[in-house]
Amino acid sequence: MLNKWILPTLIGIMALLYIFIIPPEPFVLKIIFKLIPMLLIILYAFRQLPKRPSPAMHLIVIGLFFCMLGDGFIAMSFVAGLGSFLIGHVFYLIGFIKMSRMNMTRLAALLPIGLYSFFIGRQLIAALQTEGNDGLVIPVVAYMVIISLMALTAILTGNLWATAGSILFVISDSILSWNMFVSAIPYSDVLIMTSYYSAQFLIANSLASLGNSVRHEEGKRLNM
């Protein structure tokens, strides 16, 4: 039982160390410590996989890897980081679609997600155009569409861990983009990274229960 909590505890410690202790300089050290929690989360994700994981589960792990790359790239180039996160979300989206169990209640999440994305997106586009960053409009809009669809497909799985993780991811990115382009948010760095690491951990943690759901569905099909 104790061993079960060692890796999650280490993830939490390293995340807090990066957020509150590691100074901005030297830059390389800051990036290394930023990536360590994600490396540990990917390791944790592998430990959540069943003995015979489905291809969809592998896609989630690949998504975690591309997001980790985005953590590094975004410190040097916003567009490169955005692109890497976009690819990560595409892997999440496809993985969640393959494990989705659609019903009308879950589909109803499309409305609040759509309204939220429209509100945030409109403010971001206006701010980008005002500041003369028209070249970022299409990449930012594309990213918002993909992350919104990712959140919806996570909800369609019916998995609480995946749902909470995807919503936290949307919140984290909303704070980041609002702080960068619209107006400053107090303690934005802390809010962004705590919600981000929490989101990734929850998505990784969802693999164990998603695996049980997949096996259950496969068992039902075989018994038909």
Strand and helix layout:
Elements: H1 2-21, H2 27-48, H3 55-73, H4 78-98, H5 104-107, H6 110-130, H7 137-156, H8 160-182, H9 188-223
Helix pairs in contact: 1-2, 1-9, 2-3, 2-9, 3-4, 3-9, 4-7, 6-7, 6-8, 7-8, 8-9
Name the features:
single chain; mainly alpha
Descriptive report:
With about 220 residues, the chain is an all-alpha fold. The protein has one domain (about 1-224). Helices cover about 85% and strands about 0% of the residues. It has nine helices and no strands. Helix 2 runs parallel beside helix 9 and helix 6 packs antiparallel against helix 7.
Quick recap:
The protein has nine helices and no strands.
What does the overall shape look like? globular
Give the H and E element order: HHHHHHHHH
Main β-sheet description: none
- Compute the average pLDDT: 92
Number of helices: 9
Q: Structural class from helices and strands?
A: mainly alpha
State the total count of DSSP E strands.
Answer: 0
> Which residues form runs of ≥5 with pLDDT under 50?
218-224
- How many domains? The number is 1
Q: What fraction of residues sit in β-strands?
A: under 5%
Overall helicity: over 70%
Between the first and last Cα atoms, what is the distance in angstroms?
A: 37 Å
Rg value: 18 Å
